[in-house]
């Protein structure tokens, strides 16, 4: 849209200024005046270019806001998923607790498959041995029958996000797919379950498996993932919380964790934790609608309290940031989005080319008009009696200009005008009155046309108009203005005139058009004569 408006304004500027004002003014310009005109041209095109670039930068600034809001929506959806899984896990534990002796029998069967790695007990510690359990369960609690009763409920954590979203929920966010790492920390039976397989020989979650009197010390363990005291107190009271940025011992990356309590019989049984990693943040804030912009975008999150940060996207090339956008995601976190200037240049290279080309063409055209008008002024193209052009203005250069305008589907009309009864005025009132009648008609014509039009005295009482960007309907308006001007100029009612207008078609020459306009003029004159008879 911006490009269409620019080209339209460029065409209008070329027609009305260059074909009109500059065509007449450059006839008396010196080289110094041409330089002044060139400065004006460069200033105008540069102003338009700068305005378009500024508009694009503002659009990009607004787009940064869109990226922030879209990313926050994705993270909010993940928070909703975490809370929904915790709720369904609570229901699964409650149902499992009501199973009675049937549940105890299943627990005993499971305990026959218990695994050990050093001091760690559990299931799927090295490979997947429990088919119905996709992840790994680690614990230091030897009382297998106590915690194995929870195992049938744990697959809830591995269900797909679509299944986690209630069909009655207002949340229908399906924009991106995450591959989150989720943990369940059971405070009742002192175990941890992660939603994918972990080789216990390589890593054990010792920060959560440290227990006092066979119970996990939640205060001590929570501080290992930088939960502050206020948030910890809220968590113990049953609220959902988000941690500060911390370095995860398992992934060795800076991450953020969402923590939701899991309840049984109105008491906190455990904690469901979803980690937000570098990959998850990149997935949240990616710009699939602008893949090129994504390649030149810097994105990172800073922790307002600890000063930690997570850099989750870097540009492929780095020069200078042209946009630096900040957004307060929560009371803890600030999003920083920076866009490199290379993208702005690449995305708007067409505008740079158009600016350079348009400026060059306008300067070149101005130079041509300057040379042409200087030549025409030497040949004295102005009619001394009326101030209009004389016949010398009809040159091959003018013919070429008219032809190029018509080829661009811009209407051009040639009007032939002839004074009525000039011989009678000369014979009865004298040649000085005839000259006066010609001057009146010439003045009326000059005051009725635009600067982009050509008013020409061909000789005697014969005139021609070349009307740019004017069809036959607009030509009649011009003739009406001429007649109105004569009413105020010609107080003695000396002048009347006949006219004929012809709109040029592709392939027409100016000479052909003037002949056709002459034929129409004489038809008009004959019809007026027949009416008088």
Concise overview:
With 533 residues, the chain is of the alpha+beta class. The chain has helices at 2-25, 31-97, 101-111, 144-147, 161-164, 206-209, 218-223, 229-236, 278-285, 291-295, 341-347, 349-378, 396-407, 422-429, 431-448, 472-489, 510-532; strands at residues 115-117, 120-123, 136-139, 181-186, 191-194, 211-212, 215-216, 241-242, 246-247, 254-264, 267-276, 297-303, 309-313, 321-328, 333-340, 412-419, 454-459, 462-468, 497-503. It is rod-shaped and about 135 Å long.
Q: Averaging pLDDT over every residue, what do you get?
A: 83
Strand pairing plus helix content: what structural class?
A: alpha+beta
Contiguous runs where pLDDT drops below 50 for at least 5 residues: 1-29
Sheet-strand content, in percent, reads 15-25%
Q: What helical percentage do the residues reach?
A: 40-55%
Which term fits the overall shape?
Answer: rod-shaped
Number of helices: 17
Note the gap between the termini.
60 Å
Question: Largest sheet at a glance?
Answer: 9 strands, antiparallel
Count the beta strands: 19
Radius of gyration: 43 Å
Written account of the structure:
This protein has 533 residues and is α+β, with helices and mostly antiparallel strands. It has helices spanning 2-25, 31-97, 101-111, 144-147, 161-164, 206-209, 218-223, 229-236, 278-285, 291-295, 341-347, 349-378, 396-407, 422-429, 431-448, 472-489, 510-532, and strands at residues 115-117, 120-123, 136-139, 181-186, 191-194, 211-212, 215-216, 241-242, 246-247, 254-264, 267-276, 297-303, 309-313, 321-328, 333-340, 412-419, 454-459, 462-468, 497-503. Strands 1, 2, 3, 4, 5, 8, 9, 10 and 11 form a 9-stranded antiparallel sheet that branches. Strands 13-12-15-14 form a 4-stranded antiparallel sheet. It has a 4-stranded antiparallel sheet with strand order 17-18-16-19. Helix 2 crosses helix 9. Residues 1-29 have low confidence and may be disordered.
């Amino acid at each position: 849209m911006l490009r269409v408006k620019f080209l339209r304004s460029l065409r209008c500027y070329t027609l009305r200024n260059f074909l009109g004002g500059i065509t007449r003014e450059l006839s008396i310009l010196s080289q110094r005046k041409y330089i002044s005109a060139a400065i004006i041209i460069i200033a105008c095109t540069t102003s338009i270019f700068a305005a378009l670039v500024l508009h694009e930068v503002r659009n990009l600034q607004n787009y940064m806001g869109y990226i922030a809001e879209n990313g926050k929506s994705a993270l909010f959806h993940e928070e909703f998923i975490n809370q929904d899984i915790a709720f369904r896990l609570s229901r699964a534990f409650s149902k499992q607790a009501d199973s009675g002796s049937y549940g105890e029998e299943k627990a005993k069967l499971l305990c026959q498959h218990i695994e050990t790695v050093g001091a760690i007990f559990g299931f799927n510690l090295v490979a997947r041995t429990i088919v119905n359990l996709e992840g790994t369960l680690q614990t230091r609690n030897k009382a297998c029958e106590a915690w194995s009763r929870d195992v049938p409920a744990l697959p809830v954590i591995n269900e797909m996000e679509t299944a986690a979203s209630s069909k009655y929920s207002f949340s229908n966010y399906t924009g991106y797919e995450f591959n989150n790492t989720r943990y369940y920390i059971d405070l009742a039976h002192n175990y941890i379950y992660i939603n994918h397989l972990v080789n216990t020989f390589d890593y054990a979650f010792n920060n959560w498996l440290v227990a006092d009197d066979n119970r996990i010390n939640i205060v001590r363990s929570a501080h290992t993932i930088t939960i502050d005291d206020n948030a910890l107190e809220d968590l113990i009271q049953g609220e959902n919380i988000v941690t500060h940025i911390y370095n995860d011992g398992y992934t060795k990356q800076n991450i953020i964790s969402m923590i939701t309590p899991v309840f049984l019989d109105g008491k906190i049984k455990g904690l469901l934790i979803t980690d937000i990693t570098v990959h998850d943040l990149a997935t949240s804030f990616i710009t699939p609608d602008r893949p090129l912009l994504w390649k030149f975008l810097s994105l990172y999150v800073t922790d307002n309290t600890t000063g930690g940060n997570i850099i989750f996207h870097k540009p492929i090339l780095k020069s200078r940031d042209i946009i630096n956008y900040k957004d307060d995601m929560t009371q803890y976190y600030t999003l920083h989005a920076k866009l490199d200037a290379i993208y702005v240049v690449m995305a708007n290279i067409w505008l740079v080319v158009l600016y350079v080309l348009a400026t060059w063409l306008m300067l070149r055209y101005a130079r041509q008009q300057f040379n042409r008008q200087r030549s025409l002024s030497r040949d004295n193209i102005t009619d001394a009696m009326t101030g209009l052009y004389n016949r010398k203005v009809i040159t091959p250069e003018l013919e070429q200009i008219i032809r190029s305008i018509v080829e661009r589907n811009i209407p051009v009309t040639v009007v032939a005008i002839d004074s009525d009864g000039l011989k009678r005025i000369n014979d009865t009132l004298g040649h000085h009155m005839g000259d006066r009648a010609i001057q009146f008609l010439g003045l009326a014509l000059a005051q009725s046309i635009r600067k982009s039009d050509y008013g020409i005295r061909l000789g005697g009482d014969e005139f021609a108009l070349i009307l740019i960007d004017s069809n036959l309907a607009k030509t009649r308006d011009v003739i009406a203005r001429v007649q109105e001007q004569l009413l105020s100029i010609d107080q003695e009612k000396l002048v009347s005139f006949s006219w004929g207008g012809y709109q040029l078609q592709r392939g027409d020459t100016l000479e052909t058009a003037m002949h056709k306009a002459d034929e129409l003029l004489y038809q008009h004159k004959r019809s007026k004569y027949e009416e008088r008879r």
